[in-house]
Amino acid sequence: MKGQRHAGSSRFTPYFFILPAVVFYAIFFLFSIGFGLWVSFREWDMLTPLDKTRFVGLSNYVYLFTKDDLFLPVLRNTLVFAIGSVLFSTAIALLLAVALQNNPRRGLWRTLYFLPMVTSVVAIANIWRYLYDPNFGLFNGLLSLFHIPGLRWIDSTALAMPSLIAVSVWATIGGALLLFAAGLEGIPTMYYEAARLDGCSGWNEFRHITLPLLRPTLLFVLITGFINGLQSFALTMIMTGGGPVNSTRVLALYMYETAFQNFRMGRASAMAFVLFLIIFLITLLQLRIFRRGGVEAH
User: Fold this and answer.
1) Residue 128: pLDDT above 50?
2) Topology (CATH) of 63-297
3) For the whole model, what pTM was predicted?
4) pLDDT value at position 254?
């Protein structure tokens, strides 16, 4: 009997260890999602008690797509920022990873490129804002050396978004570089040796060996980078505040303004679930592509 009691108690021991994580997950994830979904169907200004809020059904969602003049342009800005950031950062990081693969000081270079990843976004945004300053910024100072007129980098509707994308690319290269470096080190060298014996050029090695075998890493970097780009907030808020003329206003920033400046928490929650749906669909696409890639790789 004593042995049976000991066996019974030990059976539940693992559950006690994971209980704190389960509670944390339930409170800060499941409850938050459920509460946000509930609010998205109501009209709430955060000053009215929750039991006195008015149920409006899908009105908040309908308003976003039919009456809100800013929502669709802001959604477009968000997609442009996310796509531009992830494509350029992925391409540059992949080229750097290949170039540094056999460099004896590759550890130092990888560390240098990774430093922006551990730097506060607030600090990065403020530093780059000074670099972009039209009067005293470094970039216009360099242009003046060649007698080129200075540019209004983040004060122009044409240049503001590309300027933000450039900062995002600079800040995220390091993480993608480390992932690609790990993927490259996992490729057996015998494939390259056999290719060199057959007289393959460096480009053919990259095209027919490196890229196919690096496909899972490449897909992971693309999808996670795109999802992170969709959720970008602090960089835009600090550098441009969404301007000029809403040319850099992204969905997370617009959501924050709607909730905490205009006190339209129901509409802000609806925006959050539209963004959630977009991210969810991208995640499903990721799983589909990974499954197909895994079968082909096998």
Assistant:
1) yes
2) MetI-like fold (1.10.3720)
3) 0.86
4) 95
Q: How far apart are CA 150 and CA 278, in angstroms?
A: 39
Residue written as token pair 């400046």? 261
H or E segment and range at residue 205: helix 202-205
Q: Are 141 and 120 in contact (CB under 8 A)?
A: no
Task: With H, G, I as helix, E, B as strand and everything else as coil, classify residue 188.
Answer: coil
Cα–Cα–Cα angle for 139, 141, 143, rounded to 5 degrees:
75
Judge residue 30's burial from the number of C-beta atoms within 10 Å of its C-beta, 0-12 exposed, 13-18 middle, 19 or more buried: exposed
Whether the per-residue pLDDT at 181 is higher than 80: the answer is yes
Phi first, then psi: give them for residue 55, nearest 5 degrees.
-75, 125
Instruction: Tell me the C-alpha to C-alpha distance, in Å, between residue 203 and each of 104, 179, 207.
Output: 22, 21, 6
Q: Evaluate whether 100 touches 181 at the Cβ level (below 8 Å).
A: yes
Q: Are 251 and 271 in contact (CB under 8 A)?
A: yes
pLDDT in tens, 259-268: 999 999 999 9
List residues bridging with 54 in a β-sheet. Answer: 43
Q: Give how far Cα 284 sits from Cα of 89, 98, 230, 278, Å.
A: 23, 29, 16, 10
| Tokens standing for residue 78 | 């968000």
Rounded to an integer, what distance in angstroms lies between the CA atom of residue 77 and that of residue 165?
11
Q: List pLDDT tens digits, range 187-218.
A: 888 888 888 887 777 788 888 888 888 888 88
Lookup: tokens for 71: 């929502």
